[in-house]
Amino acid sequence: MSDEKLVGIVLVSHSAEVATSVAELAKGLAGGATSVPVAAAGGTEGGGLGTSAELISAAAASVDRGVGVAVLTDLGSAVLTVKALLAEGDELPDGARLVDAPFVEGAVAAVVTAATGADLDAVEAAAAEAYSYRKV
Q1: C or N: which end of the chain has fewer Cβ atoms within 10 Å?
Q2: SS3 content of the chain, % helix, strand, coil (to 5)
Q3: What is the spatial distance between Cα 123 and Cα 127, in angstroms, rounded to a whole number?
Q4: In what order do the strands lie in the sheet containing 38-42?
Q5: Which tens digit of pLDDT belongs to each residue from 9-50?
Q6: How far from chain centre, in Å, is Cα 116?
Q7: CA pair distance 2, 75, nearest whole angstrom
C-alpha cells in the first residue's frame, strides 16, 4: 500500500555511482520493492569521491516516513560523517540510525526487510546479519 509507513534506507558511499548502483541492486533483488524509500548519498556535491554531510542529510530527509531511517556506509570517513551528523542531533531525522553492516549485502537485506513493513530494529538486525553470509 502506498500509505504504509516503511523504514527509510540511506546508502552512503564515497562514490555517487556506487551508492546509486547499490540502491538499484538492493531494490531489484527485493523484487522491485518500489515502496521502500531508498536514497543514495554518494560522493561530494561537486561529483568527486568523498562524503558530504549535506548530501547525507538531504537523503535521510527524503526517505523519512516517521518510522526510522537506517543509514548504511561503505568506508571510514562515511562512518565518521554519519556519526558526526547523529551527534549534532538535528542534522538527521529522529529515528535515524547508523547500521553496522556490510554495504552491499546489508543494503539488500535492509531493503528486503523494510519491504515487509518491519520496524527499524528488524531492518537493522537483518542488515547486520549479512556479516554472516559466507561465500566459501
Answers
A1: C
A2: 45, 15, 40
A3: 6
A4: 38-42, 8-13, 69-73, 96-98
A5: 999 999 999 999 999 999 998 886 678 999 999 999 999 999
A6: 16
A7: 33
Phi-psi sector, 127: left (phi>0), alpha (psi -120 to 50), beta: alpha
pLDDT recorded at residue 30? 83
> Distance between the two ends of the chain, CA-based, in angstroms?
39
Cell of 103: 554495504
DSSP, collapsed to helix, strand or coil, labels residue 136 as: coil
Beta carbons of 33 and 23 less than 8 angstroms apart: no
Entry pTM: 0.94
Place of cell 561503505: 74
- How far, in Å, CA of 73 to CA of 103, rounded? 6
Angle between helices 16-29 and 103-115 (to 10 degrees): 40
3-class SS of residue 65: coil
pLDDT in tens, 45-96: 999 999 999 999 999 999 999 999 999 999 999 999 999 999 999 999 999 9
